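Researcher: Last one for today. Full complex below.
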Amino acid sequence: MIEIKDIEKSFGSNTVLKGISGIFKEGLTNLIIGGSGSGKTTLLKCMIGLHTPEKGSVQYDGREFIDMDFEQRIEIRKEIGMLFQGSALFDSMTVEENIMFPLNMFTDHSFKEKLERVNFCLERVNLEGKNKLFPAELSGGMKKRVGIARAIAMNPKYLFVDEPNSGLDPKTSIVIDELIKEITEEYNTTTIVVTHDMNSVMGIGDYILFLHEGKKFWEGSNKEIAHTDIAELNDFVFASRFMKAAKKNF
Amino acid sequence: MNFTNFGRYLLLLRAVFRKPEKFKIYLKAIFQQMDFVGVGSLGLIAIISTFIGAVMTLQIAFQLVSDFIPKTIIGSVTRDSSILELSPTITAIVLAGKIGSAISSEIGTMRVSEQIDALEIMGINSPGYLILPKLIAGITMVPVLVIFAMVLSITGGYLGGTLSGAVTPAEYIQGITTDFNPYTIVVALVKAFVFGFIITTVPAYEGFYVKGGALEVAQASTRAVVVSCISILACDYIVTQLLL
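Model: Here's the assembly. Have a good evening.
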């Protein structure tokens, strides 16, 4: 479980996060949603230590993360897997080397054991046999899947996913969403997904935290999100023509 | 570099020297970088050093036209200029362009494509993993390249001088062997060590803190080469002042 309390973050005079709190439980797909510039990626970066908030706390199963120094954070970071918006695969490494990288750095397993783990992860994301390809040879959806394979290589307790569907067609987006959901349930990870994709929200959002202009406006599940009377949330959820039309059926 | 940048540069260096996560992985990276910095630059340094030595000999011969000055002086001046100044400095400036821009763009691209963030999230000390192997390769291979450049520059001087008839082989060899002071080699190697440090760390700093996209990576690369060259010349003066 990850608990954030009263997170505040500014860039110069621009306050991006204004006292955000929330509890993200294990085994659930937790979504942070909001429009562009609402602060969702900044919140994610504060949670994983890429940004330091001015105020507030981030606790990983009761362990305060923000006050930790670099060495202390390493122990928690070994429990974190992350899929970046652009996948962030290492260009100069093959798929196999990318997934093996954290295993090389932090385990003393033999090459055979590491290769078995790589193959297991690749199989899990339906990319068996793609070991020797380079990131430049992969499609956007395949890159995301390799990113997920790398993220789960170390059996993470916490899985962070930043905009998993950006640049993907709707069909591939659903595949990625379902993969995230399956992995979360299978490994009981605390999964946090930052997205503004309504398909993801409706499809996999067990717990949703809605941000608007740096503030938490609403929290709940995908079953509840379509039935609120919060204007800002409704503007976001039903922004597209498709969702407007679908609203009649809710 | 203003003071803020210099402060950030020092903080980055502090992070570079944190204990590596796994020596074996770092060792492999060090050898790869030594190959890139050292072996990969041999051809370029060989061509430049040989021609500079040859041209320098011709120019010295042209300027020392006097019956009162023995022609062996041509060899002596070529030797001392090559060892003390031209080989370390020209090698360093050439490498700042070749290696520096490559380091800056490699790390800069990793920054803008979130690869450095990915390293951080995995719990890897990204400055150490990305910069330390390059730094060690720089401070070990640049002195080797400088020694190589010294030999080829003096050889180039011999070829240029004798082929043009500006100096006889005997005069040139007598010139380069007379009154040789080995301390000049020490000074040159100290310079090479310092330059190797600059050539790798300044571009790494520029790349590591780049923000934006392709344009900013290119700008960081250009800035890395410019700042490295200025730093090399400034340190050249300081080291020469301190050691001679």
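The beta strands of chain A are 2-11, 14-24, 29-34, 55-60, 63-64, 80-83, 158-162, 190-195, 207-212, 215-220. The interface with chain B takes residues 48-50, 70, 73-75, 77-78, 80, 82, 84-86, 88-91, 101-102, 104-106, 160 of chain A (CB under 8 Å).
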